[in-house]
Design goal:
Elements (H helix, E strand, L loop, with lengths): L4 E7 L2 E7 L5 E3 L12 H11 L4 H7 L10 H8 L9 H8 L3 H10 L12 H30 L1
Antiparallel strand pairs: 1-2, 2-3
Helix pairs in contact: 2-3
């Protein structure tokens, strides 16, 4: 089987079986086509946990929060089902599940505006987007500094 995982999910009451590769891409077992699914931070965390071969309870035992030294299995369940954002656990989950922190920030920023992507973006695209944003902000900051220096002169 290699770096793949067989996953069955229910969509609109119908169970479908997918192959999930190491990147989290879902391929329909019947058609072999890539499935573009609605994705949330909870699903990203759940899929990464499953790829690591961990249970919710096993992951919860290892997770540490910024405000609390533990994470209950119920809290982990709530995070995976998007009933709780769980920001205080992001760094620990990032480290344990090998999910870049930028992925947490990207999906976390979408929650307050009720935006749910219809495609799970590969981690490297999210990281690259944040790099570009940092470059733009750095350039903008430099331009402001130069402008202020001219005003002083």
């Amino acid at each position: 089987m290699g770096d793949e995982l067989i996953l069955t999910r229910s969509f609109n009451g119908a169970a479908k079986t997918y192959t999930v590769d190491i990147e989290g891409n879902h391929i329909d077992k019947e058609t072999g086509e890539m499935v573009y699914k609605v994705t949330t931070l909870g699903r990203v965390i759940r899929d990464a946990r499953i790829r690591k071969g961990m249970t919710q309870r096993g992951l919860a035992v290892l997770v540490r929060g910024s405000d609390t030294p533990y994470c209950s299995p119920q809290t982990m369940n709530n995070i995976e089902h998007d009933e709780r954002l769980g920001e205080q656990y992001w760094q620990s989950l990032s480290d344990l599940l090998d999910i870049p922190m930028e992925v947490f920030i990207f999906y976390g920023l979408l929650v307050p505006i009720n935006m749910v992507p219809s495609y799970e973006y590969p981690y490297h695209l999210i990281e690259d987007g944040f790099k570009v944003m940092r470059l733009v902000l750095d350039g903008y900051t430099d331009a402001i500094k130069k402008h202020r220096l001219k005003e002083v002169d």
